[in-house]
Amino acid sequence: MTNTNIKAQVPAVDQEEQAIRSLYLDSLHLVERLHRRLLDVIK
Prior knowledge:
With 43 residues, the chain is mostly helical. It contains 1 helix and no strands. The termini are far apart.
């Protein structure tokens, strides 16, 4: 019975991980853009 509960929770965890990964990649993209702009200003 415990295995059933764990299996039921796995998709929710996958969705949560996917949401976090998406936010992380968006944030990383913004930091990369900011870094490039900073390098342009320093030139």
